[in-house]
Structures are given as structure tokens and as C-alpha cells.
Specification:
mainly alpha
Length: 251
């Protein structure tokens, strides 16, 4: 199915389409200002007032007895076990969402196909399974620490709010496979940085075995990132071939 990411067509969103009307629009905007007095400082003040009144996103749930003992040991070492659990909850939610993202990408592959240097079904499926295994790793870690893996921690809720746009974009039927890879690139960049932070936290708290497990997960995520970058580069170069229909160009 043909649907290039960068395709010329009847795009009427820019001002240059109607230079006369655009001039009148600009003049009207300059002539008639807002009908409400004030400026952006009022909006800023309102944001500040509301931020002072409301609480945070949530709390980290208390651990079970085994987890409380581990938390006490961490505190004696000068560490904050709640921060570690909070970030683990964030990672768990993100890896679960990552599995869904690659399921969406597989659907795009079935509709639009791939291109020379693009992703194969086997590659996308392997990454999906990697994300699933990383989710299971974090779940086991939380259980080992006596924490509740089903809880939505503050960092997990924050990440869910920030990442809302990527799943929405991949689920959009207007988006082809090459375009969907832009969303996967965003997710993989965040994923890599977040595993790096988890490794540092684990080492600071003396969880060296966990740090090694997390390092192996980071090594795999770095492979994912390199693959997605290469797929985007190959697809974009094919689309950029002016004046020719490149064989295997991304649809």
C-alpha cells in the first residue's frame, strides 16, 4: 500500500496558500486584541497558586515486612529505598507500554510493509519480547524488595502522563511504519536514559547483583536504539530520492 511519509499534496494549512486573506488575518489580529484584560503574568500566577494548593502525584506504598527490613538497611547506608521503588515502578509501567508500542509497529508492518534497510517482522517481534522480559525483570525485583508491583507510583504516573502522545501516535491509522518509528525512537531514548539511572541507584544502595541485571537490560536497549535509528535513516534516505521511485521505498 502506497503512503509515503513526506508526500506533496493539497495542504491548505499554511498562510502562503492565500496571501491576500493571510494579510487580512494578520491585520485583524493586530487590530483587535484579547477581550479579557491582563497578560501572560496572570496565567503564570494562576499556575503558581494552584501548584501551592494541590498535593503531589501520589505516594510510594509501604512495603511488606521483608521490604521494610530491606528499607531499614538502605536507610542505614544513607540511601532512600522509596526513591528506588518509585523508579522501579516507573520502569515497570514504561516497559509494559513499550511492549504495546511494538505490537502497534507490527500492525503497521503488516499493512505497509518494510523497505531496504527497514525493520523485519522478526526484529520487531524480538524487541517486543525483550520489552516484555524487562517488564518481568522489574516485577521480580519489586517483589524481591517487598514492594507491590501493581501499584502506580508517583514516577510511574508522571511517566505515563509524559508518554501519552507516543501510543496515541502509533495507534493513529494515518501513520505509516516509517512515521511510527519516530515514536519508537522517542521511547527508546527515554528507555536508555532511565535504565542508566536505575543502575546508578542500585549501586548506590548496594544492590550490585540488581545493577548487573539492569546493565544487561541496558545493553539490549542500546541495541534497540541503534536499530531504530538505522531503520529511520534508511527509510528517510529512500524517500529523499528525488525524481525516482526507489525500489522498496517505505510506503
Amino acid at each position: 500500500m502506497e503512503r509515503k511519509a513526506s508526500e506533496m499534496g493539497m495542504n491548505r494549512t499554511g498562510l502562503m496558500v492565500h496571501p491576500v486573506k493571510s494579510k487580512e488575518t494578520i491585520e485583524g489580529a493586530e487590530k483587535y486584541g484579547p477581550d479579557i484584560p491582563g497578560d501572560a503574568s496572570l496565567i503564570a500566577k494562576e499556575r503558581q497558586d494552584v501548584s501551592r494548593e494541590v498535593g503531589g502525584l501520589g505516594t510510594v506504598p509501604p512495603p511488606n515486612l521483608k521490604g521494610m527490613a530491606k528499607a531499614a538497611m538502605d536507610l542505614l547506608k544513607g540511601g532512600r529505598a522509596t526513591v528506588f521503588v518509585d523508579k522501579l515502578g516507573q520502569r515497570l509501567g514504561f516497559e509494559r507500554a513499550g511492549t504495546r508500542l511494538y505490537e502497534c509497529a507490527l500492525s503497521k508492518l503488516d499493512v505497509f510493509g518494510t523497505w531496504a534497510g527497514g525493520p523485519s517482522r522478526e526484529q520487531l517481534e524480538k524487541i517486543r519480547l525483550d520489552e516484555l522480559s524487562h517488564m518481568a525483570l522489574v516485577k521480580r525485583t519489586l517483589e524481591k524488595l517487598g514492594a507491590d508491583p501493581t501499584a502506580l507510583t508517583p514516577a510511574a504516573e508522571l511517566q505515563a502522563n509524559m508518554s501519552e502522545g507516543v501510543p496515541k501516535m502509533l495507534a493513529d491509522p494515518h501513520i505509516n511504519l516509517l512515521q511510527s518509528l519516530e515514536g519508537l525512537l522517542t521511547a527508546e531514548l527515554v528507555d536508555n536514559a532511565s535504565w542508566e539511572l536505575l543502575i546508578e541507584l542500585a549501586r548506590d544502595l548496594g544492590h550490585h547483583e540488581l545493577a548487573e541485571d539492569f546493565q544487561r537490560a541496558l545493553d539490549v536497549e542500546q541495541e534497540h536504539l541503534a536499530l531504530v535509528r538505522a531503520w529511520i535513516a534508511a527509510g528517510t534516505r529512500l524517500e529523499a530520492r528525488v525524481g525516482e521511485e526507489a525500489a522498496g521505498a517505505p510506503a
